Amino acid sequence: MTTTDRSRERREEIEAILERKPGVREVRDEADRYTVVGAAGRGTYANWLTPVEEHFVCHRNAIPEIEDDSWSVAFSGGLAGEASVAELAERFPTVAVAHTMECAGNGRGQHEPETGSVQWGFEAAATAVWTGVPLSSVLRAFSEELPEEGWLTAVGGDPDEEGVFARSIPLEKAVDDCILAVGVNGRQIPAEHGYPVRLLVPGWYGVNSVKWLDELRLADSMVTEGSLDRPGRHARWQQEDYRIHPAGEAPEWMETIGTADTWGQLESDEVAHPYTFDQNVMSVIGTPDGEGSIRAGEIDVCGVAWAGDDSVERVEVSFTGGDEWTEAERFGPEYSGAWRLFRCSWNAEPGTHRLVSRATDEHGRTQPATIGSPEEGLDALGSGRYPWNEGGYAANAYLPNALEVRVEPDE
Ligand SMILES: Nc1nc2c(c(=O)[nH]1)N[C@H]1C(S)=C(S)[C@@H](COP(=O)(O)O)O[C@H]1N2
Ligand SMILES: [Mo]
User: Fold this and answer.
1) Atom 15 (ligand 1): residue with closest C-alpha?
2) Is domain 282-408 annotated with CATH 3.40.50.170?
3) Ligand 2 center–CA 345 separation, angstroms
4) 20-40: b (≥16 Cβ within 10 Å) or e
5) Which pLDDT tens digit goes with each residue over 114-146?
Protein backbone atom coordinates (compact mmCIF):
# COMPACT_ATOMS: atom_id res chain seq x y z
CA MET A 1 0.00 0.00 0.00
CA THR A 2 1.37 3.44 -0.91
CA THR A 3 1.62 6.29 1.57
CA THR A 4 -1.22 8.12 -0.19
CA ASP A 5 -3.48 5.05 0.01
CA ARG A 6 -2.65 4.66 3.69
CA SER A 7 -3.31 8.34 4.25
CA ARG A 8 -6.70 8.17 2.49
CA GLU A 9 -7.67 5.07 4.44
CA ARG A 10 -6.72 6.83 7.66
CA ARG A 11 -8.82 9.88 6.79
CA GLU A 12 -11.83 7.66 6.13
CA GLU A 13 -11.30 5.81 9.39
CA ILE A 14 -11.14 9.08 11.35
CA GLU A 15 -14.28 10.43 9.61
CA ALA A 16 -16.18 7.25 10.50
CA ILE A 17 -15.06 7.43 14.15
CA LEU A 18 -16.09 11.11 14.38
CA GLU A 19 -19.56 10.13 13.17
CA ARG A 20 -19.88 7.35 15.73
CA LYS A 21 -18.42 9.39 18.58
CA PRO A 22 -19.89 12.90 18.87
CA GLY A 23 -17.86 13.68 22.01
CA VAL A 24 -14.44 13.61 20.33
CA ARG A 25 -12.53 15.69 17.80
CA GLU A 26 -9.57 15.03 15.59
CA VAL A 27 -6.11 15.86 16.92
CA ARG A 28 -3.25 17.20 14.81
CA ASP A 29 -0.79 14.51 13.71
CA GLU A 30 2.06 16.15 11.80
CA ALA A 31 3.13 13.01 10.00
CA ASP A 32 -0.43 11.69 9.52
CA ARG A 33 0.63 8.33 10.87
CA TYR A 34 -1.88 7.71 13.62
CA THR A 35 -5.65 7.47 13.80
CA VAL A 36 -6.27 9.93 16.61
CA VAL A 37 -9.28 11.60 18.14
CA GLY A 38 -9.39 13.15 21.61
CA ALA A 39 -12.00 14.33 24.10
CA ALA A 40 -13.77 17.29 22.51
CA GLY A 41 -13.80 19.46 25.62
CA ARG A 42 -12.98 19.83 29.30
CA GLY A 43 -16.42 18.56 30.29
CA THR A 44 -15.09 14.98 30.04
CA TYR A 45 -12.89 15.71 33.05
CA ALA A 46 -15.79 16.71 35.28
CA ASN A 47 -17.05 13.10 35.35
CA TRP A 48 -15.62 9.91 36.77
CA LEU A 49 -16.92 7.67 33.97
CA THR A 50 -16.16 8.62 30.38
CA PRO A 51 -18.85 7.60 27.89
CA VAL A 52 -17.35 5.67 24.97
CA GLU A 53 -18.52 8.56 22.74
CA GLU A 54 -15.99 10.82 24.53
CA HIS A 55 -13.19 8.25 24.92
CA PHE A 56 -10.11 9.15 22.88
CA VAL A 57 -8.83 6.72 20.23
CA CYS A 58 -5.21 6.18 19.27
CA HIS A 59 -3.58 3.61 17.03
CA ARG A 60 -1.00 3.38 14.34
CA ASN A 61 -2.33 0.84 11.84
CA ALA A 62 -5.69 0.31 10.19
CA ILE A 63 -8.42 -1.33 12.30
CA PRO A 64 -8.37 -5.01 11.34
CA GLU A 65 -11.62 -6.38 9.96
CA ILE A 66 -12.73 -8.96 12.48
CA GLU A 67 -16.11 -10.58 12.01
CA ASP A 68 -16.93 -12.32 15.28
CA ASP A 69 -15.72 -13.93 18.49
CA SER A 70 -14.35 -16.97 16.67
CA TRP A 71 -11.21 -14.77 16.57
CA SER A 72 -8.59 -16.57 18.61
CA VAL A 73 -5.62 -15.69 20.78
CA ALA A 74 -2.47 -17.82 20.42
CA PHE A 75 -0.26 -18.66 23.40
CA SER A 76 3.49 -19.10 22.91
CA GLY A 77 6.91 -19.14 24.60
CA GLY A 78 6.31 -20.38 28.15
CA LEU A 79 2.63 -20.74 27.21
CA ALA A 80 0.99 -23.15 24.77
CA GLY A 81 -2.34 -23.44 23.04
CA GLU A 82 -4.95 -21.27 21.46
CA ALA A 83 -8.39 -20.06 22.54
CA SER A 84 -11.23 -18.35 20.76
CA VAL A 85 -12.70 -15.29 22.41
CA ALA A 86 -15.98 -17.16 22.93
CA GLU A 87 -14.06 -19.94 24.69
CA LEU A 88 -12.19 -17.49 26.95
CA ALA A 89 -15.46 -15.86 27.99
CA GLU A 90 -17.06 -19.18 28.75
CA ARG A 91 -14.18 -20.82 30.57
CA PHE A 92 -13.05 -18.02 32.89
CA PRO A 93 -14.87 -15.81 35.40
CA THR A 94 -16.14 -12.43 34.27
CA VAL A 95 -14.50 -9.52 36.07
CA ALA A 96 -14.45 -5.75 35.71
CA VAL A 97 -11.70 -3.20 36.17
CA ALA A 98 -11.83 0.57 36.19
CA HIS A 99 -9.00 2.02 34.15
CA THR A 100 -7.86 5.48 33.22
CA MET A 101 -6.54 5.09 29.70
CA GLU A 102 -3.92 7.73 29.00
CA CYS A 103 -1.82 7.89 25.87
CA ALA A 104 1.89 8.08 26.67
CA GLY A 105 1.91 11.03 24.25
CA ASN A 106 -0.67 13.00 26.25
CA GLY A 107 0.85 16.47 26.70
CA ARG A 108 3.22 16.03 23.76
CA GLY A 109 1.83 19.18 22.12
CA GLN A 110 3.03 21.14 25.16
CA HIS A 111 6.71 20.51 24.40
CA GLU A 112 8.64 23.56 23.11
CA PRO A 113 10.21 23.23 20.64
CA GLU A 114 7.60 20.94 19.19
CA THR A 115 8.33 17.22 18.94
CA GLY A 116 6.85 15.29 16.01
CA SER A 117 3.79 13.07 15.78
CA VAL A 118 0.44 13.58 17.49
CA GLN A 119 0.07 17.00 19.15
CA TRP A 120 -2.04 16.07 22.16
CA GLY A 121 -2.90 18.64 24.80
CA PHE A 122 -4.58 16.91 27.76
CA GLU A 123 -7.37 15.21 25.80
CA ALA A 124 -5.84 11.73 25.51
CA ALA A 125 -7.18 10.48 28.83
CA ALA A 126 -10.45 8.72 29.69
CA THR A 127 -11.84 6.44 32.37
CA ALA A 128 -14.00 3.43 31.57
CA VAL A 129 -15.07 0.17 33.18
CA TRP A 130 -13.68 -2.72 31.18
CA THR A 131 -15.06 -6.23 31.52
CA GLY A 132 -13.42 -9.51 30.60
CA VAL A 133 -11.49 -12.38 32.12
CA PRO A 134 -8.60 -12.28 34.62
CA LEU A 135 -5.28 -12.61 32.81
CA SER A 136 -3.85 -14.54 35.79
CA SER A 137 -6.43 -17.33 35.28
CA VAL A 138 -5.73 -17.47 31.56
CA LEU A 139 -1.96 -17.61 32.01
CA ARG A 140 -2.28 -20.36 34.60
CA ALA A 141 -4.51 -22.40 32.30
CA PHE A 142 -2.19 -22.10 29.29
CA SER A 143 1.14 -22.77 31.05
CA GLU A 144 2.51 -25.84 32.78
CA GLU A 145 3.74 -23.77 35.65
CA LEU A 146 3.92 -20.01 35.80
CA PRO A 147 7.38 -18.72 36.71
CA GLU A 148 7.81 -16.07 39.44
CA GLU A 149 9.29 -13.57 37.03
CA GLY A 150 9.37 -12.89 33.34
CA TRP A 151 7.85 -10.72 30.63
CA LEU A 152 4.58 -11.10 28.83
CA THR A 153 4.52 -9.87 25.26
CA ALA A 154 1.19 -9.03 23.66
CA VAL A 155 0.95 -8.86 19.87
CA GLY A 156 -1.80 -6.95 18.09
CA GLY A 157 -3.73 -8.33 15.15
CA ASP A 158 -3.42 -5.06 13.24
CA PRO A 159 -1.38 -5.39 10.08
CA ASP A 160 1.76 -3.26 10.39
CA GLU A 161 3.64 -2.35 7.24
CA GLU A 162 7.04 -3.16 8.68
CA GLY A 163 6.36 -5.74 11.36
CA VAL A 164 4.05 -6.21 14.32
CA PHE A 165 2.60 -4.07 17.08
CA ALA A 166 4.04 -5.81 20.15
CA ARG A 167 4.38 -4.64 23.76
CA SER A 168 5.87 -6.37 26.80
CA ILE A 169 4.94 -5.94 30.45
CA PRO A 170 6.42 -7.61 33.53
CA LEU A 171 4.69 -10.91 34.38
CA GLU A 172 4.20 -9.55 37.90
CA LYS A 173 1.89 -6.82 36.58
CA ALA A 174 0.19 -9.23 34.17
CA VAL A 175 -0.94 -11.55 36.96
CA ASP A 176 -1.65 -8.76 39.43
CA ASP A 177 -4.63 -6.98 37.86
CA CYS A 178 -4.63 -7.21 34.06
CA ILE A 179 -7.58 -8.58 32.14
CA LEU A 180 -8.38 -9.67 28.63
CA ALA A 181 -11.23 -7.28 27.94
CA VAL A 182 -14.22 -7.97 25.71
CA GLY A 183 -16.53 -5.23 26.97
CA VAL A 184 -16.41 -1.56 27.91
CA ASN A 185 -18.98 0.44 29.91
CA GLY A 186 -21.50 -2.37 29.66
CA ARG A 187 -21.29 -3.10 25.96
CA GLN A 188 -19.14 -4.96 23.48
CA ILE A 189 -15.82 -3.23 22.75
CA PRO A 190 -16.23 -1.13 19.59
CA ALA A 191 -13.89 -1.92 16.67
CA GLU A 192 -11.69 1.14 17.25
CA HIS A 193 -11.10 0.19 20.89
CA GLY A 194 -9.99 -3.37 20.16
CA TYR A 195 -12.93 -5.64 19.30
CA PRO A 196 -13.19 -8.54 19.95
CA VAL A 197 -10.49 -8.68 22.67
CA ARG A 198 -7.76 -6.44 24.03
CA LEU A 199 -5.22 -6.62 26.79
CA LEU A 200 -6.11 -4.13 29.52
CA VAL A 201 -3.31 -2.98 31.81
CA PRO A 202 -4.87 -0.90 34.61
CA GLY A 203 -3.10 2.38 35.42
CA TRP A 204 -0.43 2.02 32.73
CA TYR A 205 -0.01 4.14 29.62
CA GLY A 206 -2.43 3.20 26.84
CA VAL A 207 0.24 1.75 24.56
CA ASN A 208 0.55 -1.26 26.89
CA SER A 209 -3.12 -2.18 26.39
CA VAL A 210 -2.76 -3.95 23.05
CA LYS A 211 -5.95 -3.92 20.96
CA TRP A 212 -7.15 -6.72 18.66
CA LEU A 213 -5.06 -9.17 20.70
CA ASP A 214 -3.58 -11.92 18.53
CA GLU A 215 -0.85 -13.54 20.63
CA LEU A 216 0.47 -13.69 24.17
CA ARG A 217 4.06 -14.84 24.64
CA LEU A 218 5.79 -15.53 27.92
CA ALA A 219 9.59 -15.14 27.99
CA ASP A 220 12.54 -14.17 30.21
CA SER A 221 13.00 -10.87 28.48
CA MET A 222 10.90 -8.16 26.92
CA VAL A 223 10.50 -8.22 23.17
CA THR A 224 13.67 -7.57 21.17
CA GLU A 225 14.29 -7.97 17.44
CA GLY A 226 13.88 -11.60 16.36
CA SER A 227 12.18 -12.78 19.55
CA LEU A 228 8.81 -13.52 17.93
CA ASP A 229 8.06 -16.27 15.48
CA ARG A 230 6.89 -13.80 12.81
CA PRO A 231 8.22 -11.92 9.81
CA GLY A 232 9.16 -8.25 9.97
CA ARG A 233 10.23 -6.06 12.88
CA HIS A 234 9.24 -7.03 16.41
CA ALA A 235 10.64 -4.55 18.89
CA ARG A 236 10.06 -1.08 17.52
CA TRP A 237 7.14 -0.16 19.78
CA GLN A 238 8.86 -1.45 22.90
CA GLN A 239 12.50 -0.53 22.42
CA GLU A 240 12.54 2.50 20.12
CA ASP A 241 9.28 4.41 20.30
CA TYR A 242 7.58 5.06 23.64
CA ARG A 243 10.99 5.57 25.30
CA ILE A 244 11.86 8.77 27.17
CA HIS A 245 15.15 10.06 25.76
CA PRO A 246 16.84 13.39 24.98
CA ALA A 247 17.14 14.77 21.45
CA GLY A 248 19.52 12.84 19.22
CA GLU A 249 20.11 9.96 21.65
CA ALA A 250 19.02 6.50 20.54
CA PRO A 251 17.43 4.56 23.40
CA GLU A 252 19.44 1.66 24.70
CA TRP A 253 17.62 -1.67 24.15
CA MET A 254 17.22 -3.72 27.32
CA GLU A 255 16.06 -7.26 27.97
CA THR A 256 14.83 -6.63 31.47
CA ILE A 257 14.67 -3.84 34.04
CA GLY A 258 14.24 -3.81 37.81
CA THR A 259 11.62 -1.10 38.19
CA ALA A 260 8.73 -0.63 35.83
CA ASP A 261 7.47 2.53 37.53
CA THR A 262 7.98 5.25 34.89
CA TRP A 263 8.82 8.04 37.35
CA GLY A 264 11.02 5.60 39.30
CA GLN A 265 12.98 4.91 36.11
CA LEU A 266 13.35 8.66 35.52
CA GLU A 267 14.77 9.10 39.01
CA SER A 268 17.11 6.10 39.03
CA ASP A 269 20.31 5.42 37.09
CA GLU A 270 19.28 1.89 36.15
CA VAL A 271 17.43 2.81 32.96
CA ALA A 272 19.02 5.60 30.93
CA HIS A 273 15.93 5.97 28.73
CA PRO A 274 12.77 5.04 30.64
CA TYR A 275 10.04 2.84 29.20
CA THR A 276 6.52 4.25 29.41
CA PHE A 277 4.76 1.83 31.75
CA ASP A 278 2.68 3.14 34.66
CA GLN A 279 1.30 6.67 34.45
CA ASN A 280 2.88 9.72 36.05
CA VAL A 281 0.75 11.76 38.46
CA MET A 282 -1.62 14.08 36.53
CA SER A 283 -4.75 16.19 36.96
CA VAL A 284 -7.16 18.15 34.77
CA ILE A 285 -9.91 20.60 35.73
CA GLY A 286 -13.26 19.73 34.08
CA THR A 287 -15.55 22.47 35.33
CA PRO A 288 -15.75 25.37 34.87
CA ASP A 289 -14.70 24.56 31.33
CA GLY A 290 -13.53 28.00 30.20
CA GLU A 291 -16.13 28.22 27.42
CA GLY A 292 -18.13 31.45 27.56
CA SER A 293 -18.34 33.13 30.94
CA ILE A 294 -19.77 32.38 34.38
CA ARG A 295 -21.63 34.51 36.96
CA ALA A 296 -19.78 35.77 40.02
CA GLY A 297 -20.39 33.90 43.25
CA GLU A 298 -19.53 30.70 45.06
CA ILE A 299 -18.97 27.83 42.60
CA ASP A 300 -17.52 24.32 42.67
CA VAL A 301 -14.34 23.72 40.71
CA CYS A 302 -14.25 20.04 39.78
CA GLY A 303 -11.79 17.77 37.99
CA VAL A 304 -9.95 14.46 37.97
CA ALA A 305 -6.51 13.37 39.20
CA TRP A 306 -4.64 10.12 38.66
CA ALA A 307 -1.26 8.51 39.27
CA GLY A 308 -1.18 5.19 37.40
CA ASP A 309 -1.42 2.32 39.83
CA ASP A 310 -0.38 4.58 42.69
CA SER A 311 -2.98 6.55 44.58
CA VAL A 312 -3.44 10.32 44.58
CA GLU A 313 -2.58 11.75 47.98
CA ARG A 314 -3.29 15.43 47.41
CA VAL A 315 -4.87 17.76 44.87
CA GLU A 316 -4.46 21.52 44.99
CA VAL A 317 -6.19 24.14 42.90
CA SER A 318 -5.00 27.67 42.17
CA PHE A 319 -7.29 30.50 41.08
CA THR A 320 -4.28 32.75 40.50
CA GLY A 321 -2.34 30.88 37.83
CA GLY A 322 -0.22 29.01 40.39
CA ASP A 323 0.60 31.81 42.89
CA GLU A 324 -1.60 30.64 45.74
CA TRP A 325 -3.05 27.16 46.24
CA THR A 326 -6.14 25.76 47.94
CA GLU A 327 -6.38 22.11 48.89
CA ALA A 328 -9.17 20.28 47.05
CA GLU A 329 -11.28 17.47 48.44
CA ARG A 330 -11.05 14.07 46.74
CA PHE A 331 -14.35 12.23 46.39
CA GLY A 332 -16.21 9.55 44.49
CA PRO A 333 -15.09 6.07 43.39
CA GLU A 334 -11.62 4.94 44.41
CA TYR A 335 -10.11 2.17 42.29
CA SER A 336 -6.46 1.43 41.72
CA GLY A 337 -5.67 2.33 38.10
CA ALA A 338 -8.47 4.87 37.71
CA TRP A 339 -8.63 8.61 38.35
CA ARG A 340 -10.37 10.28 41.30
CA LEU A 341 -12.68 13.23 41.25
CA PHE A 342 -11.73 16.37 43.16
CA ARG A 343 -13.61 19.54 44.00
CA CYS A 344 -13.08 22.77 45.85
CA SER A 345 -15.24 25.76 46.27
CA TRP A 346 -14.27 29.10 44.71
CA ASN A 347 -15.62 32.54 45.38
CA ALA A 348 -15.45 33.77 41.79
CA GLU A 349 -15.14 37.54 41.51
CA PRO A 350 -15.70 39.51 38.30
CA GLY A 351 -12.69 39.52 35.99
CA THR A 352 -10.53 36.97 34.18
CA HIS A 353 -8.83 34.27 36.23
CA ARG A 354 -6.31 31.55 35.50
CA LEU A 355 -7.26 28.24 37.08
CA VAL A 356 -4.85 25.33 37.42
CA SER A 357 -4.67 22.07 39.36
CA ARG A 358 -1.75 19.98 40.56
CA ALA A 359 -1.73 16.53 42.14
CA THR A 360 0.68 14.61 44.35
CA ASP A 361 0.92 10.80 44.46
CA GLU A 362 1.43 8.46 47.41
CA HIS A 363 5.23 8.67 46.99
CA GLY A 364 5.07 12.45 47.42
CA ARG A 365 5.74 13.14 43.74
CA THR A 366 4.03 16.36 42.63
CA GLN A 367 3.31 17.40 39.05
CA PRO A 368 6.04 19.81 37.92
CA ALA A 369 4.98 23.29 36.78
CA THR A 370 6.60 23.29 33.35
CA ILE A 371 8.39 21.16 30.74
CA GLY A 372 12.13 21.81 30.45
CA SER A 373 14.23 22.53 27.37
CA PRO A 374 15.98 20.06 25.04
CA GLU A 375 19.35 21.27 26.37
CA GLU A 376 18.49 20.29 29.93
CA GLY A 377 17.81 16.71 28.86
CA LEU A 378 16.40 14.33 31.46
CA ASP A 379 18.22 16.30 34.21
CA ALA A 380 15.37 18.84 34.11
CA LEU A 381 13.63 16.65 36.67
CA GLY A 382 16.30 17.59 39.23
CA SER A 383 15.37 21.25 38.84
CA GLY A 384 11.66 20.55 39.14
CA ARG A 385 10.74 20.58 35.46
CA TYR A 386 9.36 17.69 33.45
CA PRO A 387 12.08 16.58 31.01
CA TRP A 388 11.54 17.68 27.41
CA ASN A 389 12.12 14.44 25.50
CA GLU A 390 12.32 13.69 21.82
CA GLY A 391 9.21 11.50 21.64
CA GLY A 392 7.23 13.87 23.88
CA TYR A 393 6.22 11.11 26.32
CA ALA A 394 4.65 10.98 29.76
CA ALA A 395 4.50 14.77 30.28
CA ASN A 396 2.61 15.87 33.38
CA ALA A 397 3.42 19.55 33.84
CA TYR A 398 0.47 21.50 35.25
CA LEU A 399 0.81 25.05 33.86
CA PRO A 400 0.18 24.00 30.23
CA ASN A 401 -3.23 22.69 31.38
CA ALA A 402 -4.31 25.99 32.97
CA LEU A 403 -7.62 27.47 31.86
CA GLU A 404 -8.93 31.04 31.71
CA VAL A 405 -12.28 31.71 33.26
CA ARG A 406 -14.22 34.92 32.60
CA VAL A 407 -16.48 35.92 35.46
CA GLU A 408 -19.30 38.43 34.89
CA PRO A 409 -20.81 40.50 37.73
CA ASP A 410 -23.90 38.88 39.22
CA GLU A 411 -26.78 41.37 38.97
N1 LIG B 1 -2.86 -3.40 18.39
C2 LIG B 1 -2.69 -2.13 18.79
N3 LIG B 1 -2.96 -1.82 20.05
C4 LIG B 1 -2.82 -0.54 20.48
C5 LIG B 1 -2.36 0.48 19.61
C6 LIG B 1 -2.07 0.12 18.27
O7 LIG B 1 -1.64 0.95 17.45
N8 LIG B 1 -2.26 -1.20 17.89
N9 LIG B 1 -2.23 1.77 20.10
C10 LIG B 1 -1.97 1.88 21.55
C11 LIG B 1 -1.98 3.24 22.04
S12 LIG B 1 -0.65 4.19 21.61
C13 LIG B 1 -2.95 3.71 22.91
S14 LIG B 1 -2.84 5.23 23.60
C15 LIG B 1 -4.14 2.89 23.24
C16 LIG B 1 -5.41 3.68 23.02
O17 LIG B 1 -6.54 2.91 23.29
P18 LIG B 1 -7.98 3.44 22.85
O19 LIG B 1 -7.91 3.76 21.38
O20 LIG B 1 -8.94 2.37 23.18
O21 LIG B 1 -8.22 4.70 23.65
O22 LIG B 1 -4.18 1.69 22.46
C23 LIG B 1 -2.93 1.02 22.37
N24 LIG B 1 -3.12 -0.28 21.78
MO1 LIG C 1 -0.78 6.18 22.78
Assistant:
1) 206
2) no
3) 34
4) ebebbeebebeeebbbbbbbb
5) 998 999 999 999 999 999 999 999 999 999 999
